[in-house]
Amino acid sequence: PTNNLQMEGSSNLRWENCRAKGGSPGFKVAILGAAGGIGQPLAMLMKMNPLVSLLHLYDVVNTPGVTADISHMDTGAVVRGFLGQQQLEDALTGMDLVIIPAGVPRKPGMTRDDLFNINAGIVRTLCEGISKCCPKATVNLISNPVNSTVPIAAEVFKKAGTYDPRRLLGVTMLDVVRANTFVAEVLGLDPRDVDVPVVGGHAGVTILPLLSQVKPPCSFTQEETEYLTSRIQNGGTEVVEAKAGAGSATLSMAYAAVKFADACLHALRGDAGVIECAFVSSQVTELPFFASRVRLGRNGVEEIYPLGPLNEYERVGLEKAKKELAGSIEKGISFVGK
Ligand code: NAI
């Protein structure tokens, strides 16, 4: 045996076959970077998702322990671990959804763009594996800088001839989750009743909350608008500073990633009316990628909604966001061109 994970997998075969016969259709989901700060709680929460029948946990370190641990949870999904590059293809083969939180996180004083040099190469390698082993899978890309890693993934898929823009989604859900929480605090509401569209991208000024379109309808003073916009844009930095060198958001990110992945799975199953914000290939602006509200379906992104009416504050924010985004997108595209 090459490792104890495979042995454990084969001893489970009878149990897996038995469940496959009588069980629900369920989706096959891989997490790449599954042993990390986001990866571990994300793996745990995906193991609890009733739409998942098979969960593949891949990382370059520590997957045996994480897999053994999570596999003891008495939920439906079967868990298998994969360790190191030589097991990447096995981890990806047959997957319906691939979630990627692999790569280094920020430390205090760093921007997301400072992560580019390391994470760009990691994302390229993982996406090459996806084109080869599960070219039809939906991809949820979490690794930062999302504004550049999504264009990198698109270029890798184009080169391989497997690019389907509807199936590549940059995860900006944490910005929405934060926006809902902070807006609810200001309005004195339950965050579950609040829905804030956040558009643009996933870094600093590219994160553009549309406070004029909050549901339920409400209004903010200029002071509240500035406070909320700034807090939503800097939510990640708030966590990086509080963790003081121990990483960036992991628990709230795992929550947001699962919320997003669950929406993707419901859409893949054929549920109607699944609408979320995501950073995708888009014609909503002149930029090739942009985050906005999208309707998800069996084929991934099936409709991209226009931004809707913006107020003056948001129009100014949009121009700033587009300027920075253009550079980040170009940086991603030219990385693969090299
Ligand atoms: P972490 O360092 O705790 O975990 C990253 C994991 O990736 C590690 O287990 C590491 O071994 C693994 N890894 C490294 N190279 C790999 C490779 N070639 N293949 C597979 N796995 C590999 O970092 P954390 O906190 O989990 O963050 C992960 C990424 O998510 C970072 O880039 C971070 O900036 C990003 N992030 C994105 C957010 C978003 O809203 N989209 C929010 C928070 C973080």
From TrEMBL:
Residues 172-335 form the Lactate/malate dehydrogenase C-terminal domain. Its main location: other. It catalyses: (S)-malate + NAD(+) = oxaloacetate + NADH + H(+). The keyword Oxidoreductase applies. One of its GO terms (cellular component) is chloroplast. Its EC number is 1.1.1.37. Keywords: Glyoxylate bypass, NAD, Oxidoreductase, Peroxisome, Tricarboxylic acid cycle. The keyword Oxidoreductase applies. Substrate binds at R106, R112, N144, R178. NAD(+) binds at G33, A34, A35, G36, G37, I38, G39, D59, N119, I142, S143, N144, M253. It is an enzyme of class 1 (oxidoreductase). Residues 28-170 form the Lactate/malate dehydrogenase N-terminal domain. This is Malate dehydrogenase.
